[in-house]
Amino acid sequence: MSAGARKSLFQKAQTAEDLKAASIPAAAGTADRHPRHHLRWLWIAGVVGPGVMVMLADTDVGSIVTAAKSGATWGYRLLPLQIVLIPVLYVVMELTARLGIATGKGHAQLIAERFGRRWAMLSVSALLISTTGALVTEFAGIAGVAAIVGLPTFIVVPAAAAFLALVVVSGTYRRVELIGIGLGLFELAFILAAALARPDAGALVGSVASGQPLGNTAYLSLVAANVGAVVMPWMIFYQQAAIVDKGLGHRDLRGARVDTALGAVATQVVMMAVLVAAGATLFNHHAGPLNSVGQISKALTPSLGEVGGRLAFVLGTTGAALVAGIVVSLAASWAFAEMAGTPRSLNQRVRQAPLFYGIYFGSLAAAAALVLVSPSLVGLAVAVEIVNSLLLPIVLCFLVALAWTALPAPYRLRPLERAVLLLVTAAVIAMGIGLGVTALGL
């Protein structure tokens, strides 16, 4: 059966049995047939990637600053929230993975086909604003790292942009994914920072049972900021498009769920590590500002040690900024190329997909240039984060609408899954809007 005929059958499939005859080829490196039991973990390893990479990017420079502020201001009180947010993140991103596998289409393309190009442009416009702010924040983090280690920003920032450009032209989707995950794993250095902080075990356990100051506006703002940092618009566009580019089919859904779960746990563990490091060393002991990576590193150095603390934050922040830079830029590239209907695969060369690569290179260059010339990076990043929290409802509403209309019968949400999705979506939207309203003083 030809690929076109197989995909046509897949779109019309109504039962799990129908899907067997209409399967989309599995990812490169995975077996086309269902793996035998003793090869299952090897098969899952071939599927893992899009979820882990996008989740590592989720713990970007802005999230690091948010977690550090949370620990420095409120100690461990926001630690239970980080645990609660793991299933919230999983629910949203599992649905994204399900849509990519079930339809074989990216998020922007699917919105355009289901609801029209005008609605798709609205969603992509929200993505554009979100990616602009995210990229500026990542390069601002790299500039902060350069200042920490004493290197000139005007050399380090362009070098980082050039490195990220070289990564995507290195060969194939799989190679880019492996490089991205490798960079993101440097975030685990924050766990070293948490260990060096020597947190009080009793206080950590007590944070679960401690009272929450829900009447405090500043506390609620940080709660909303942490919730708003969990799901970014670009995460949804990236993961769905990455699943398509990787070639995952319906037989890979279980592996994609494992991939998403691993990523959700990993990103929140990193957030908890930053919060614990700041809570153990800065809570009730630091009155200065904590608006940048440089300020956070400087504040933590006396407690964590000149070498250990600084090294942990340099490695962790660099890894977070670089993997987020790749993911955010690719999300924008895939979305705009989907809207234009042009080639958009990392398995293609630059001359085969000029718009896709052009947007990627252009977004990196623009963000790096803005960081080099902007006099107020922190103010810009904070302003964009506020706007991002107000844009998130647009993306989540489209995600829910696609779950209701685009999934074939075997993939449709069960009643309990629908209820959980609606509850999670409503909570995230409410927190996001709450953050924006509070920050704007409305």
Written overview of the protein:
With 442 residues, this protein is mainly alpha-helical. It has one domain: Amino acid/polyamine transporter I. It has 20 helices and no strands. Helix 4 crosses helix 17, helix 8 packs across helix 16 and helix 11 packs antiparallel against helix 17. The protein is globular and about 55 Å long.
Instruction: Detail the poorly predicted runs.
Output: 1-34
Helix content: over 70%
Assign an overall shape.
globular
In total, how many domains does the architecture comprise?
Answer: 1
The CATH superfamily bears the name: Amino acid/polyamine transporter I
The largest pleated sheet is described as:
none
Provide mean pLDDT, rounded: 81
- Strand elements, count: 0
* Strand-residue proportion: under 5%
What is the CATH class name?
A: Mainly Alpha
Termini separation comes to: 60 Å
Question: What is the CATH T-level topology?
Answer: Amino acid/polyamine transporter I
Task: Set down the secondary structure blueprint.
Layout: H1 3-12, H2 16-21, H3 40-47, H4 50-58, H5 61-74, H6 79-103, H7 107-115, H8 117-149, H9 153-168, H10 173-184, H11 189-196, H12 201-209, H13 217-228, H14 233-246, H15 253-282, H16 293-304, H17 308-340, H18 354-373, H19 377-405, H20 415-440
Helix pairs in contact: 3-15, 4-10, 4-14, 4-15, 4-17, 5-13, 5-15, 6-14, 6-15, 6-19, 7-8, 7-17, 8-9, 8-16, 8-17, 8-18, 8-19, 9-18, 10-17, 11-15, 11-17, 13-20, 14-17, 15-16, 16-17, 17-18, 19-20
